[in-house]
Structure formats: structure tokens, C-alpha cells
Amino acid sequence: MKNLQKKSIFLLTIGLLLNNHCIQSQNSKEIEIYKWLDKNLGIESLDIKNGAAHLNFDKTINNQNRYYQTDNFRKGNVNYNNQNYFDLLLKYDIYKDDLVLNPYDEANNTKINLIKENVISFTINNEKFVNLKNLPASFKGGFYEEIDINNDITLYIKHLKEKKKLNKVESDEIEYIPANEFILLKEKKLNLINDKKAIIALFPDSKRKINDYYFMNGSLRKENQALFIKNLILYINN
Question: Which of 28, 122, 151, 236 could form an S-S bond across to 78 if both were Cys, CB 3.0 to 4.6 Å?
Fold first, then answer.
């Protein structure tokens, strides 16, 4: 029996626990019930356990790694095959653009790459990522951090790491160089905004604000390009 069918049966059995008079309370209770189901059904019963083993044999300098922010697993949520899973141990391999699951606990070394096309969205550290598909040829597909600016504008940040082998004959060490690409959804159209010219084209009335922001925040642009662009789009639309 499929995971969704199993959960439906359990939910029918314990449905009386939900309070139908309070939508917010009901949603909260449903989340707790799904957590309980995932725990008690066992990871072997869940669709989300399917996927290839995650392997990483990198030898890097200065404790670098291929992951988003940290190589440690952190609690997060996933929408997988339109089914929500909560409080999973996750980390995001931004070099391969894979979401990695530890299906048991931190003491267990098992790591699984979730099947990418089945991952609709996920959150780690209260940051939401969505799987963008069927994009124009000039856009990179895959996971993007999603930031809602207002009702009409959404910023998508692609986090990347490029692998560079060190020029040492006696060593196979590598380093990772971070990079980003940016998409802005404005007026229901996706736009690449990887440079100042593209941003000004979308916000011509804010040209002076944009130029001033670039001038005043040169250090941030070099240190954290993603935060630089995020703050700029918020600043323009404030």
C-alpha cells in the first residue's frame, strides 16, 4: 500500500482528534499527526526513503564543503510527491543540486539523495527552496531559494558552488567557489537579473536608488552576493 494511502487510513482512524471549528488549530494538529505517523510507520514505509546513496569523497582546503551553509544535517520539511514530511534531517548539496536526507538519526551515517523530480519544495533553517522546472533555455533549472518581496514580486536565488582543482601534482585537493544566479518574478514574468543593467530595466524609475545602493554596498556585494541582491530588491520595493 502506498504511503499516502497508509496515512489516509491512519488519519481517518484518529480524525476525531482534529478540531473542525478552528482552521489554524486543525492545521497545527494535522502537522503533529503527520509527524507521529512518519515516526511510527517507520522510515522503510515512506516513499521519501527512495533515492541513491549520497557519496562525497571531497578533499578540500580550509574546511570547505559542497553544501549550503554547512555540511551538518539540520531539521527541515519537504514536500515530496505532493506529500508533506516534517522534522527531517536534511542538507542541501549545492554543487550537485541534490537534497540529502539522513533517514534515521545523526548517529547513523546513511545518506540518501532524494529523487529530485519528486521534490516540490523544502525548508531548512526557515528558508524555503522550490524546484523550478520547465524554465527557458537560458535559465538554470533546479532548486532556488524563494523570497516573497510583495504580492506581485518574488525573488529566486540559485545557490551554486564551482569546483576547482588545486594545481598541485602531489595533491588531489579541491576548493569550492560560491556563485549565484537570480530570477525575479514580476508581473507574472520570470526575468534574469544577474547584473545591474537588468535590474534597472525592470525598475527604471528607481535607477538612482539602484546606483546609490551599488555605490554604498560594494563590500557586501563582494562578501555575500545573495544578501546584496535580496536587500536591493527589498530596498527598491520598500
Answer: 122
| SS3 assignment for the chain | CCHHHHHHHHHHHCHHHCCCCCHHHHHHHHHHHHHHHHHHHCHHHCHHHCEEECCCCCCECCCCCCECCCCCCEEEEEEECCEEEEEEEEEEECCCCEEEEECCCCCCCCCEEECHHHEEEEEECCEEEEEECCCCCCCCCEEEEEEECCCCEEEEEEEEEEEEECCCCCCCCEEEEEEEEEEEEECCEEEECCCHHHHHHHCHHHHHHHHHHHHHCHHHHHHCHHHHHHHHHHHHCC
Across 130-150, average pLDDT: 95
- Cell 482528534 locates to 17
Query: What pLDDT digit, counting tens, does each position of 66-88 carry?
Result: 999 999 999 999 999 999 999 99
Neighbours of 137 (CB within 10 A): 4
- Neighbouring C-beta atoms of residue 51, cutoff 10 Å: 20
Q: pLDDT tens digit string along 90-103?
A: 999 999 999 999 98
Greater confidence, 130 or 164? 130
Question: Cα angle vertex 144, ends 54, 80, to 5°?
Answer: 55
Residue pair 146/154 in contact (Cβ under 8 Å)? The answer is yes
What separation, in Å, do the N-terminal and C-terminal C-alpha atoms of the chain show? Answer: 50
Model-level pTM?
A: 0.82
C-alpha span between 44 and 50 (Å, rounded): 9
Which set of grid coordinates corresponds to residue 214?
A: 551599488
Chain centroid to CA 130? 6
